[in-house]
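One chain is below:
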Amino acid sequence: MEYIERTYRNRVNGEGMVSFPVSLRESDLYISVDEASYTPELERFSLSLLYKCRGVLEQYLVRDPDFGRSLKPHSVSRRSPRIVRMMAAAAARAEVGPMAAVAGSIAEIVGRGLLRCAREVIVENGGDIFLTTLRPVTVGIFAGPSPLSERVGIRVYPGQGIRGICTSSGTVGPSLSFGKADAAVVLSTNAALADAAATALGNRVHTQSDISPALNYICGIRGVRGALVIQGDRLGVMGDVELVPLHR
């Protein structure tokens, strides 16, 4: 139950950052901003961003229910809401359904909104992360039953161009995956694409022999900077990824 209860959030240690939860129905965000930018009003502003974002998407799904059901890319109008266009574009690149990008898209929209009043922002939405920081950040990897779970992290540096780090799993959590990876992680220039590509990566890993070809495919997607797969006691990594050991 660790993933569902989000107890991993108790181990967040962002020096110089202030963290707080923001939730609305299925969206459960954990937000960190730099201390100099934090005010109590920022928490209320975060909730308003989330409320608006979800409201726009829910209204669109009523008009276009196939957008929410499709497991393949789904075309949308250029006049569609921003979050819809983000999800559709990310899904098209990764060749998955638009809802595979929903958590990352919400994290990104809320995060970009907060950058109007904060210098550094990290938004985590159920394992999908949008980040813009002025200091190096280590993102730990939770991989369920794998002995490598929470033993390794990804180091991200300012100026790398990485704003999205998202995870899919076939053994952890409620998200739909057709594979059996304990963790499929993608680093990208944006969180929407990282989310969709992580789903596509996880879908391709059924056995440990699938890890290498799956990584090759995902790292060929424009905008993907690197990727990692954990299945059991095996780890595969490709691209612009610096791994660091974690100590529990």
Observations:
- The longest helix spans residues 40-63.
- Residues 9-245 form a domain with the T-fold fold (CATH 3.10.520.10).
